[in-house]
Task: structure prediction
Amino acid sequence: MAKYAAAIDQGTTSTRFMIFDHKGQVVGVDQKEHEQIYPKPGWVEHDPMEIWTRTQEVIKGALEKSGVDPKDIAAVGITNQRETTVIWEKATGKPVYNAIVWQDTRTDKICNEFAKEGGQDRFRAKVGLPLATYFSGPKIKWVLDNIEGAREKAEKGEILFGNIDGWIIWNLTGGPNGGVHVTDVTNASRTMLMNLETLDWDPEIMEIMGIPRAMLPEIKASSEVYGTAVGELAGVPVAGDLGDQQAALFGQACYNAGEAKNTYGTGCFMLLNTGTKPVPSKSGLLTTLGYKIGDQPAVYALEGSIAITGALVQWLRDNLNMIEKSPDIEDLAKTVEDNGGIYFVPAFSGLFAPYWRSDARGVIVGLTRYVNKGHLARAVLEATAFQTREVLDAMNQDSGVDLTALKVDGGMVFNELLMQFQADILGVPVIRPKVAETTSLGAAYAAGLAVGFWSNFDELRANWGKDKEWDPQMDEEKRVKLYKEWKKAVTRTFDWIE
Result:
């Protein structure tokens, strides 16, 4: 009888392997960072071979540290940074180009070209997404247009496309020797190529973007057996696949329509379960897939994506050397009572939800001689909370449901100052679960469900426990004033790039 379910969590800055018991408790973990490559302003790349090497290393590391025998693992799930695009040779497993990361903005000309007919929402009715540099479709086109010989090879099916999930699953199940070329509905819904109704690649959009069907993976449910692992996990079924934000929704047990979570990572991502029908957004949110379990109907979600949150803290650490390690920001921010009148809008790669402005760039406004580094640290943290409020407002408008509490997860939820300010600026309680690594947990849940390690949602719900809750303490007048000033600051970022 298997005792564990496991997950590979391949994120923007690092890869980890986590092993969970039946109660959803962590029994083993290993994590390693990989290089961030910035060839030009606005370009962000990763080396897919390095990512695959790190993946193998953390699997080995977690197994060694925990003493878990792979034979005791019921199944492994994959969760991943979404939209990051990898194209590789089927025969050799060699990437034809570096992975183009979701934050990369090089496809802005391609997107503007497509928008000439039908505007930014040209494909939104079919795919739930605006035309933006964020998604994979235009990135695939960029590689096919710019890498010699790539287009002919793609048409012959000699090179394959995957978001990071597809790349990992293909390698994990044998690579050039019989690797399975699949993705799931959640990752496919981030390419701009999958039709939300049919859950299949859309022939019309593929033709417009010039992307051959032969290079695309088969779209599967988020929870089903895709194949069997080789290497360290030899013989373990590979049975779960969810984009990282959907995996967090799943790990947070948001299985009913109207339940929402916000993940505080490199960026911030709020997802609201909207049930088995896609809800079109009128407020700048994305209509996306939440998850699909085996043969059951797919569950949809509304998503608000914010590009830069935790990354802003890293910027303060790495580019300005104002703190030594990311958690130090809380103590620095506590040296002052408030933000000193400054607002920091981190539109480093444009603004995502609810604006979708690729012409925006970051600003710090309201500077006076009074402002010191404590105020700057505080403004950095508050930027995350303000951006989350903007997304929540949009969700309330689109769904017609007022959110009563927000479940939170991710690295920044241990920052007490930020969580309290988040509750204050939203005016609703903020709740942190016992297992904050809900992304990995969600992928393990999906894999475990596929093989019967867990039998239903009730078992998963029973695993969820509250660790801490923050209640709003700010008066309404102050909340309104701060938020109004934030909105004004955001307008100062517009139209910077001609």
Observations:
- The chain has a mean pLDDT of 94.
- The chain has 16 helices and 21 strands.
